[in-house]
Amino acid sequence: MKNYINLSDITDLQALITEAAELKKGDSTLEIGKGKTLGMLFFNPSLRTRLSTEKAGKLLGMDVMVMNAGSDSWKLEFEDGAVMDSDKAEHIKEAAAVLSQYCDIIAVRAFPDLKDREKDEAEIVLNSFKKYASVPVVNLESATGHPLQALTDALTISELKQKERPKVVLSWAPHPKALPQSVPNSFTEMMQNLDVDYVIANPKGYDLNPEIRKSVPVIHDQDEALKDADFVYMKNWSSYENYGQKLSEDRSWTLSKEKLELTNNAKVMHCLPVRRNMIIADEVLDSDNSVVIQQAGNRTYAAQAVLKEILEEKVKVTKLGKNA
Ligand code: CP
Prior knowledge:
- By secondary structure, the protein is of the alpha/beta class.
- Helix content is 38%, strand content 14%.
- It is globular, with a radius of gyration of 20 Å.
- Phosphoric acid mono(formamide)ester binds at residues 46-49, 141, 149, 271-273.
């Protein structure tokens, strides 16, 4: 793996999930990251991604540097040919090149503005780092995807599934703010690569990008979708059609105990942070059905598997260079 910008960077998904599961056992001493540095830049807040990826790097023997971009560093200009007379003091060309002097892997979190679909889909921040950095780049959640979360979710489902082909439902839920589509996008892409019966439930107006959901069934009746589900992944997202808009706060979509009874005693997932009694009712989150803590715990091993593959690729490329 050269970079981990989106799920298409994965060469062998099953092998990566197995690797993450093996790393979780924690019985191997890993030194592959010794003398290597992971630099993480956060343009937005984080709890899980920041700490689990830092832990993952350290478990591999890496040094880890973290910076809150924007508040701690210079404001970055991403436009080619810009006359830099605004508040943006540094161009991404220098910033990414300089970070590559200090880091062996650069990881970046940059959320969308949710104002201009075309601009968000261009993934300017992530793609600029990829373009101007001379080291691998990892996506810590971007405008349109959260591939580290999706790998975590795949690991969690593979650990907990009790049948060969479980029914997995991704359900929209109400939220006071308009949120990105990154998590549901990457989860949907991931589910299409696993042996699961996958269904999305959302109110009308909330269908995800058709290029991502492809032929995945979308059901606008949540109760119908939940029937016999083995896994229910609750998540809010803003409208794709009316881009970035919050169209509804329909509380009947909150996952309650009664709704959970429609399922096959489903495991309940959420990427966190979760708004209690908006997305999922207390009685569900506090029940044995909820696997959100195990899921969050798995963030470390998904990140560790990805960083390990990238470091291994770097070793391979260096060896090839020496032997050439
Ligand atoms: N799930 C997730 O990405 O959590 P954080 O926003 O806290 O990193």
